[in-house]
Amino acid sequence: MATTETLTAERILATTEEVLRRHGAAKATVVDVARALGVSHASVYRHFRTKAALREAVTKRWLDRTSDALSGVVDAEGPAEDRLRRWLAGLFEAKQHKAGDDPELFATYTVLVGEASEVVDEHIADLTGQLAVIVRQGSEGGEFVPCDPDVTARALFEATARYHDPAYAPDWSRAGVEDAFTSLLDLLVRGLRP
Amino acid sequence: MATTETLTAERILATTEEVLRRHGAAKATVVDVARALGVSHASVYRHFRTKAALREAVTKRWLDRTSDALSGVVDAEGPAEDRLRRWLAGLFEAKQHKAGDDPELFATYTVLVGEASEVVDEHIADLTGQLAVIVRQGSEGGEFVPCDPDVTARALFEATARYHDPAYAPDWSRAGVEDAFTSLLDLLVRGLRP
């Protein structure tokens, strides 16, 4: 599959995701990725120095898709409470889609996520950072109680773990899950009102 | 190890726990249990009809230890908010002890719990039932907002999953975990105040 397109990091990562989808996390190799791109594996290594670096980068790309989508909610207009609800519901929905629409790829990424603790820590810091911006704005605007936004963001993130931690993915499609999620949101949002 | 003590279900279960501690969930057999008790395996089967029944019973006994201890908090005197905090903190503390004091046995029971979904469902129903009693009393006494106690109990239980679900056990000894837990409790309790 020779190609005349420039070999960019993004092309390599998109192809890596395809290879992972096909072969699974255990079997996918850099040679498979190079072959699918019609290039030598040395060309791939020019962009990602090791197989581990490539796996980390593709994992980060997968996680960033969620945080990038949510950052739009942080920057939107409107009351902080509204945005907080939309943000938490958006995270849950994104996870539901990732788990439900392509379960094999989700399982593969769950393996990769387990290997990439630094990437995951950054991802969680990114997400709780977004939450903290909403909490700070709500707090400063008098919509929420005065609080340490980082601490509160962390508590909100932990409190909703059932709806974003992949360990709970099998529960995300059970009957009544949306109602339970809404009850939890109501409780959390009430806890922030002055 | 012949013995003249009467062979009760409780003695069998206590010995089963010892055998599990020694051999692990994969290797422990009914014959091991019978041998440790100095009785025939037929005597054990008279109390527990199958190996699966014995494993379920010992798992239930392990889980009940936590719920029995917590039921004292439900029935105690004092404001519902106080009891709610003590109950949730008590659950976290009990889990921390189970995981930290005897990690091998905890790992063994984590395997057994994974096999015994009915026992686990009953255990969770038991725990959320206890929480619902506190919430109902608080709600009826005007300390908490009017709410459906079962729904709210479920939300509280889910919100604190990070502090009782064995999947998170590795986090229970990390620095700052107590502070994070307290922040979460504060947020949840504020959400219940009228």
Entry keywords:
homodimer; 194 residues; mainly alpha; Arc Repressor Mutant, subunit A; Tetracycline Repressor, domain 2; 2 domains; 9 helices; 0% strand; elongated
Give a structural overview.
The structure is a homodimer of 194-residue chains. With 194 residues, chain A is mainly α. Chain A folds into two domains: 1-49, Arc Repressor Mutant, subunit A; 57-192, Tetracycline Repressor, domain 2 (Orthogonal Bundle). Helices cover 74% and strands 0% of the residues of chain A. Chain A has nine helices and no strands. In chain A, α7 crosses α8. The longest helix of chain A is centred in the N-terminal third of the chain and has 24 residues, at 51-74. The model of chain A has no long low-confidence stretch (mean pLDDT 93). The interface between A and B is medium-sized, with 24 and 24 residues.
Second-tier CATH architecture of the largest domain in chain A: Orthogonal Bundle
Q: What distance lies between the first and last C-alpha atoms of chain A, to the nearest angstrom?
A: 62 Å
Q: For the record, what is the CATH homologous superfamily label of the largest domain in chain A?
A: Tetracycline Repressor, domain 2
Largest β sheet strand count, sense and barrel closure of chain A: none
Overall geometric form of chain A: elongated
Beta content of chain A comes to under 5%
Unreliable spans of chain A are: none
Sketch the topology of chain A as an H/E string, one letter per element.
HHHHHHHHH
CATH class of the largest domain in chain A: Mainly Alpha
What's the multimeric state?
homodimer
Structural class of chain A: mainly alpha
> Do you know the CATH topology of the largest domain in chain A?
Tetracycline Repressor, domain 2
**Helix count from the secondary structure assignment of chain A:** 9
Mean pLDDT of chain A: 93
Specify which chain pair forms the largest interface. A-B, 24 and 24 residues
The helix content of chain A, as a percent range, equals over 70%
Q: What is the number of beta strands of chain A?
A: 0
For the CA atoms, what is the radius of gyration of chain A? 19 Å
How many structural domains are formed by the residues of chain A?
2
